[in-house]
Amino acid sequence: xxxxxxxxxxxxxxxxxxxxxxxxxxxxxxxxxxxxxxxxxxxxxxxxxxxxxxxxxxxxxxxxxxxxxxxxxxxxxxxxxxxxxxxxxxxxxxxxxxxxxxxxxxxxxxxxxxxxxxxxxxxxxxxxxxxxxxxxxxxxxxxxxxxxxxxxxxxxxxxxxxxxxxxxxxxxxxxxxxxxxxxxxxxxxxxxxxxxxxxxxxxxxxxxxxxxxxxxxxxxxxxxxxxxxxxxxxxxxxxxxxxxxxxxxxxxxxxxxxxxxxxxxxxxxx
Length: 270
Ligand code: ADP
Ligand code: MG
Description:
The chain has helices at 2-16, 20-35, 40-67, 88-95, 98-101, 116-129, 139-151, 155-163, 180-193, 210-214, 217-229, 241-269; strands spanning 105-110, 134-138, 167-173, 198-203, 231-236. It is of the alpha/beta class. The longest helix has 29 residues, at 241-269. The model has no long low-confidence stretch (mean pLDDT 91). The site of magnesium ion has 5 residues, from helix 6 and strand 3.
């Protein structure tokens, strides 16, 4: 009876203290500890561990949501054999995230469909799991957002939000040429991030063509200077994964047909 009263009170305190996992689990853990002869320190330790695990999990989920990834692709589903120009050991090293602590950046270059977004997403998800604040943006959408924020006199606020990130992923630099204002706003974000926030930039453009997107040579030079100062370059020179995949499927389809034809030929010969 006394124990029940203590439990009710304990749960009340835990609720007030916002220790929700401890609140939810304390009865179960208490019963288990009594059964296993675990002393009170062991009991408290188990409860604290559960609370921390749950909190870390929730924080990681929150970071993942705030990062706004277009999908949740990881390296597990990435086929390195399909893109042999990529340095697999460098990518594994980058997954460990030290580049973020060093404020280094990554540029992923390659044609459409070569896995740039997939890689950038995988690196970003891993960073979230390691406690980093990440945001994934398509360049064109970021530029639109920046222009809108400027019109609504919210640019400073938006820039402050971006400056709080550990890693900013700029996907698809180069698909659409930016307007003069857009290029300047983007440059501003890149130079603010310089040596403070890591960037991952994916692009289908060789460096010599960046002027086409950013407009002025001066801006392109300054952008490249900042981006490439301390950066890792991942280059996918192979062809589109979708194309390779389509070919594989086609080959698979033709195989049974070929076999059927052989079968027919054999039965005819008989
Ligand atoms: P990009 O951003 O370079 O245009 P994506 O990353 O969007 O290319 O890749 C296109 C599609 O092909 C995606 O569904 C992606 O998951 C898949 N893909 C690309 N490369 C690979 C790869 N090497 N292994 C597995 N899937 C890949
Ligand atoms: Mg892409």
